[in-house]
C-alpha cells in the first residue's frame, strides 16, 4: 500500500480508531505529543515520525482487540518494546497505532529440567536473569541495552555473548504472534528440534514487527559456568587485534566473549567509566567453563596475542572486576557520545566472514582518519560483527552527506567481502536501500511475497525493511 492509499484509508477512519482506543483503554492509551514522540525514532539519523496514539495492552487478548480494530480500518500498527533499536524501527511514517508491550512483564513458566522458560514480550533481559538467579540458569543474549525480549526477538538481537551462545535465532524455541488480521499463531512446541513443516519461528525472529506482533516467547536457557576469567590485551593497531582474535578462533579456543575497542573508544571509556586502560586498540575477552578449561584457554590465548604484538595482558576472576570491565563496554555508546557534547550520535554495524574481518576493520579505520566527523569502532569480533559510532552536527549538511557516503561505502565493502549490511541492528528504515544489493531482486521478491501473503494491506509496521 502506498502512502497516498494510507491517507485515503485513514481520514475519518483514523480519527475514529484513535477515539475508540482512547475511550476503551482509558489511562492505558494516550495521544500526548511528548509520549508519542518518545515512542518514535530517537537513535537514528532521520525525522522523528510519531504514531497517532500509543496503547499499552496487558494481555494477548488486548493485543488481538487492538489489532482487529486497526485491521478493520486499515490503520498502521507499530510494535514497541523499549525503544532501543537503532535503525528507525519504531518510527511511524504513515502514523497509526503504537502498541507498547512494556506492561506485559509476566514470566509465565520456568522449566529448569528442560532449561527453558516462557515469558511475555515486555520482560527485559535483566528482569529475566534476576528471576533466574537461583536456578543455576541464565539467558545469554546480551545486546548491552536492557531491551525487552519481544523487541530482541523482532530485531534478531545478539551482543557480547553471541560468539559462544549464538543470537536470538538460536535462543527462541517457540513464540506466539498476533497476525495483522488479529488471528494468533503458535510457531512451534517446546521441543528442542523439529522437522515439522516450515520454520515459522525463524520467520518471525528478525521480522521487525512487519509480519505480526509477538505476544509470548519460549526461550532456551543456559547453565551458569562454573568458572569465568576476563582479560584485556592492548595492540598497536586494530589489524593486530583482529589478527589475534582470528588466530585464536581458528586454533579452537572457545571464547565466552571477545570485544574490540579502537584507540579512540578506549580513551572515551577511560574518561566515561573512570578506567586507566592503555589508550590504544584493545581486546576485552572472557573464557568460561571448568576451572581447568578456563586456565588452559587463557594461557593459550596469551601466547597467540603475544605473537600478534599484544601487550599488557591482564586477567581477573573476581566478579566485581569483571562486571566493571563489561559495564564499561556496555556503556561504550554513552562514552562515545561524551566525546562531542551536543552532537547527534549514530551507530551502524556490518558483519563479514571472520577471515575478512581484519581487512574490513582496517580499511574502515583508515577511512575514518580523514573523516569530517568524529567516530569510533567497537565490535563483537568473535563472529565478524563490528560497529561504528558516529558523532555529527545535525545542522551541518556537509557532515550529514559525509556520513551517508561513509555508510554506503562501509556496507558496499562488507557485501563485497560476502558479508551483510547489518549483523544485529536490523534494517528498519535506514538500511532498506541495501537489501537489494545483498539479496538480489529475486531474494527481495520472496520477502515481499511473504509480507504480502501475511499482511496484504501492509498495516504491520509499514515503511520498514523494504526499500519503498
Describe the structure.
This protein is α+β, with helices and mostly antiparallel strands and 468 residues long. Among the domains are: 107-223, Uridine Diphospho-n-acetylenolpyruvylglucosamine Reductase, domain 3, CATH 3.30.465.10; 227-330, Alpha-Beta Plaits (2-Layer Sandwich); 334-416, Alpha-Beta Plaits (2-Layer Sandwich), CATH 3.30.70. The chain has helices at 3-9, 12-25, 33-38, 60-73, 125-132, 149-154, 162-165, 168-171, 200-204, 238-250, 263-273, 291-307, 319-330, 332-337, 357-368, 397-416, 435-454; strands spanning 29-30, 53-55, 77-80, 97-100, 107-111, 116-119, 137-138, 172-178, 184-186, 213-220, 222-223, 227-234, 257-261, 282-289, 311-316, 344-351, 374-380, 385-392. The strands form 4 sheets. The protein has a 7-stranded antiparallel beta sheet, with helices on both faces. A 5-stranded antiparallel beta sheet has the order 5-6-10-8-9. Helix 2 (12-25) packs antiparallel against helix 4 and helix 10 (238-250) runs antiparallel to helix 15. Mean pLDDT is 93; it is low at 1-9.
Helix content: 25-40%
CATH class categorisation of the domain at 107-223: Alpha Beta
Poorly predicted ranges (pLDDT <50, ≥5 residues)? Answer: 1-9
Average of pLDDT: 93
Instruction: Tell me the strand order in the biggest sheet.
Output: 15-12-14-13-17-18-16
Alpha plus pi helix count:
17
Q: In oligomeric terms, what are we looking at?
A: single chain
Whole-number radius of gyration?
Answer: 22 Å
